[in-house]
């Protein structure tokens, strides 16, 4: 923008007299080492403290949760909230927790893993070719399919829970793992991510060249497109896994039996056995540190994936809404 | 095999002409799932919403009956109030924090902070509610002194009905804001450096640059966030549901519209009523999504 910059000095000149921030800027420009003005230091302090307050807000509950699992219920109430109990207590809590309904927590974790992973596999097998075809081929109804995908993608998953229940019920699949695996497998966001990836990162000419060399359509996909798509496959896999693992409403409705629950629903169920939250909890009572530990165990897989896929996932969240 | 015959110039692309089967074959599996779990459920909801238990067409009677249920208007009000708090806090704090992070001179600190803000996203769903049940219980909370300073001495006082919209906002913000901060930060990074430089030379300070340059350029992202948060927030379920479990139904029972659909379907055996309320929620989210896709040009469907 050369024209704008050339016009600027004249435009700024009259402002320097009344605008204090512009004054301080002139001062800074003349000597960079000059002490900062009071207003600038205080605004920096303010910014720093706002950012810090939010660090506390976001991190403190997680930290508390980690520590709570190492304490007894007594310590939870009387000790400093951010004190560490002991590894022995952690082990005791684990024993007590895994004793709940003969190891229900392990069963729930297994269920979650089964549901999340099977759906993930189906999601990948279905959405990667679909995204590829939407981006790289021409066919009737392509545009309609794309727009439908976008609309469904923007609908929150909870919208469809009761309608899905009606449908699954009619298909007599309630109480089977397919009642949640199949709906999970339908993951329009994955198709959209793959579509974006192929339109932006893979040149069509590359595929054309392979076709000229006599490659079949399936061969082009498998030998050229798929190897190039590894990053987006990982990305779709990540998002799908997290979405499946953290879903609550759908399994809550579809799988009411304790032995089929995923861990999210199971932990919610555990809550009703904690006397402090539910005075009618009765004999099979669960103590609060056990509930904290159960929560921790329930989120660990997602947390681990978060830590390892950090960089990666940031790029994916941006790619979800921009083509550049 | 037209492509092999003609050594095509760069201007013409052999774009699958005569290969019409490939596209449909690749999308077949997805289309099957889309129909089965995206379109068909909507058909089921419509069918059940307009019929009675015997399958006879009843017009709008299910809509009327459910709307007259004593809990319906309350639930609608709860969700509306919650949405108001949730959207305002999201816009103000997400944009504000993203701008602050963007001004940090140290890239490493900024990156670390974004990650810390993002961590609670791993606790989405039931886990976040459980954590906050502890945070809000003065007997075990690490911020019990803060709660007491605000005049809350017992868990019961904290979860008084009037506080719920704020509490659900806090929980939703805690899990969801970090992701949006990352997105906003990325969008801020996309603003060309010379635009900011021009503003700086023009004498605009941090506030003016943010207000007159950066926020207007973030507009479409803010709209995107508000739309998605609105659609998601209208579906409020897990927070009040778990709260009602934790308080023996004292707080959070039949609080949101989705809880009502659940109650109609599974407690009152009124599947058709549940379908009617579901359909209302469906119409809201489909139209919001549809208008957004059609009008915003945000998703470039080619």
Write a concise synopsis of the structure shown.
The complex is a heterodimer of chains A (324) and B (302). By secondary structure, chain A is mostly helical.
Give an overview in words.
Chain A has 324 residues and is an all-alpha fold. Chain A has two domains: 38-99, no CATH class; 104-319, Orthogonal Bundle (MetI-like fold), CATH 1.10.3720. Chain A has helices at residues 2-12, 15-18, 20-30, 38-68, 73-78, 87-99, 104-136, 142-154, 161-170, 178-185, 188-201, 204-212, 217-228, 230-246, 249-254, 263-271, 288-308, 310-319. In chain A, 73% of the residues lie in helices and 0% in strands. In chain A, helix 7 packs parallel to helix 10 (178-185) and helix 12 packs across helix 13. Chain A contains 18 helices and no strands. Chain B has 302 residues and is mainly alpha-helical. Chain B has a domain at 69-269: MetI-like fold (Orthogonal Bundle), CATH 1.10.3720. Helices cover 70% and strands 0% of the residues of chain B. Chain B is globular. Chain B starts with a helix and ends in a 6-residue tail after the last helix. The model of chain B is unreliable at 1-18 (pLDDT under 50). At the A-B interface, helix 1, helix 3, helix 4, helix 7 and helix 8 of A face helix 2, helix 4, helix 5, helix 6 and helix 9 of B.
């Amino acid at each position: 923008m050369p024209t704008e910059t050339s016009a600027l000095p004249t435009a700024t000149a009259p402002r320097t007299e009344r605008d204090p921030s512009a004054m301080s800027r002139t001062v800074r420009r003349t000597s960079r080492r000059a002490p900062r003005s009071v207003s600038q230091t205080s605004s920096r302090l303010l910014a720093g403290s706002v950012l810090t307050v939010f660090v506390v807000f976001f991190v403190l509950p997680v930290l508390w949760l980690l520590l709570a699992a190492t304490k007894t219920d007594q310590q939870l109430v009387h000790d400093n909230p951010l004190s560490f109990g002991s590894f022995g207590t952690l082990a005791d809590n684990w024993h007590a927790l895994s004793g709940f309904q003969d190891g229900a927590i392990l069963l729930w974790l297994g269920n979650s893993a089964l549901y999340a992973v099977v759906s993930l596999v189906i999601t990948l097998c279905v959405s990667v070719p679909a995204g590829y075809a939407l981006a790289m081929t021409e066919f009737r109804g392509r545009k309609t399919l794309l727009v439908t995908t976008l609309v469904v993608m923007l609908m929150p998953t909870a919208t469809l829970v009761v309608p899905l229940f009606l449908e699954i019920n009619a298909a007599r699949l309630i109480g089977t793992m397919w009642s949640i695996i199949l709906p999970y497998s339908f993951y329009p966001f994955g198709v959209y991510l793959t579509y974006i990836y192929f339109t932006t990162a893979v040149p069509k000419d590359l595929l054309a060249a392979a076709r000229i060399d006599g490659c079949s359509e399936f061969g082009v996909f498998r030998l050229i497109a798929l190897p190039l798509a590894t990053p987006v496959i990982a990305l779709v896999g990540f998002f799908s896994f997290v979405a499946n693992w953290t879903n609550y409403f759908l399994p809550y409705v579809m799988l009411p039996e304790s032995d089929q629950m995923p861990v999210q629903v199971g932990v919610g169920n555990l809550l009703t056995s904690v006397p402090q939250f539910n005075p009618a909890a009765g004999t099979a009572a669960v103590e609060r540190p056990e509930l904290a530990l159960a929560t921790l165990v329930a989120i660990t897989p997602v947390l681990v994936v978060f830590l390892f896929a950090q960089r990666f996932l940031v790029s994916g969240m941006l790619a979800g809404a921009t083509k550049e | 095999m037209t492509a092999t015959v003609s050594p095509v110039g760069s201007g013409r692309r052999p774009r699958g002409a005569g290969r019409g089967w490939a596209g449909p074959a690749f999308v077949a599996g997805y289309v099957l799932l889309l129909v089965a779990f995206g379109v068909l459920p909507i058909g089921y909801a419509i069918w059940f919403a307009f019929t009675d238990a015997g399958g006879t067409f009843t017009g709008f009677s299910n809509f009327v009956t459910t709307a007259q249920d004593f809990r319906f208007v309350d639930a609608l009000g709860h969700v509306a109030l919650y949405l108001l708090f949730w959207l305002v806090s999201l816009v103000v704090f997400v944009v504000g924090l993203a701008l602050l992070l963007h001004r940090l001179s140290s890239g490493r600190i900024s990156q670390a902070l974004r990650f810390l803000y993002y961590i609670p996203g791993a606790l989405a769903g039931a886990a976040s509610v459980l954590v906050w049940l502890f945070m809000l219980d003065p007997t075990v909370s690490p911020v019990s002194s803060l709660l007491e300073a605000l005049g809350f001495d017992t868990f019961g006082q904290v979860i008084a009905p009037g506080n719920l919209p704020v509490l659900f906002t806090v929980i939703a913000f805690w899990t969801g804001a970090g992701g949006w901060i990352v997105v906003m930060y990325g969008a801020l990074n996309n603003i060309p450096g010379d635009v900011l430089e021009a503003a700086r030379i023009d004498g605009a300070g941090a506030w003016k640059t943010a207000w007159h340059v950066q926020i207007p350029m973030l507009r479409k992202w803010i709209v995107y966030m508000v739309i998605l948060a609105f659609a998601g927030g209208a579906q409020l379920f897990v927070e009040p549901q778990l709260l009602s479990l934790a308080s023996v139904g004292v707080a959070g029972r039949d609080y949101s519209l989705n809880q009502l659909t659940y109650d109609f379907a599974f407690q009152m055996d009124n599947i058709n009523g549940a379908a009617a309320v579901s359909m209302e929620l469906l119409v809201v989210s489909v139209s919001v999504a549809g208008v957004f896709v059609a009008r915003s040009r945000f998703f470039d469907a080619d």
